[in-house]
Amino acid sequence: MDHPESDQPERDRGAKPGRRRATVVDVARLAGVSAGTVSNAINGKRRVDPETRARVEAAIDALAYRPNIAARGIRTGRANTIALVSSMAAGVAAGPSRLGFLMEIAGAAALAALERNVALVLVPPIPDPETALRAVPLDGALLVEPARNDPFLPFLAVRGIPTVSIGAAYGVVSAQVDLNYDKTVDLLMDHLIETGARDFPLLIGTSARRYYEVFEARYRARAAQIGMVPQVLRIDERLGEQAAAQVVARHLRTRPGLDGVLAPVDALATGAMMALREARKAVPAEVRVVTRYDGLRARSETPQLTAVDLHLETVARTAAIALLELIEGRSVAPILPGPMPQLVMRASSRRN
User: Which fold has domain 1-77?
Assistant: First the structure.
């Protein structure tokens, strides 16, 4: 059962002295609807037909009504706040991309949450979420591509916070959005092979994440199909681009004839580009370079990097809506289909 907002007739800060603050009952009376309908129109919990919603919104504007958020929180026991969290090391999550992958997800998720009067808190990579977030009230969390030993997983589980993972997760989460890792690596592998690459390494991080595992398994399988010796280069993500540049530079000394680089993380791809420039390897004439995330790093590199459109806006909205449904007590499928990835071909891998 929905309960109307229980605003007290306190003075609105923006109102003139002596003027009573409008309540949900006043809005309902002016709009010619029930207080419950006004509440539904405001909080988005139940559908309100467009004509009725328009009358409610007109009444809200006419009365300068502002919901009493504090009173609502006390009544419902909810904080009306969700968090977006990620444990990806700052060495690859920050830098020139300015948390690009995370921020792209955050923007779309925040908009979806605001449609239901819920705020989104962005939690950057931190080693000890229990200490940092112990006093922060949360109704739910969106967890971006968690690691096997992700510090956020036990923290959220112990607090019983509904959690939706963007990408496959280890451990128990309420639901997860499928980022189609297998299809993504196939897109990139097919493209490299079709453009003539036959000797290229896979650059992945040292942390245990599902998409690294899928990329490595698919890479090894496809390498076997074309008779290529697999070359899996593991890089400490905490050290970012510089670490990738050093690893690729060493690899070039043993395999100077390599003709491609497959780097799922954009920071590792730009690190590889640094090493290739230092070794005077022309891209794409001698070496083709591709990455997974079509972000600022991919678009600002010279030449621009071939990447994949993951449709993160749709992914983030799907995850946020699922989380809000869980918070409202509704059931959600454990695995939510994500949009199909699309290759964005750029100069770094064009056929000679």
Answer: 434 Repressor (Amino-terminal Domain) (1.10.260)
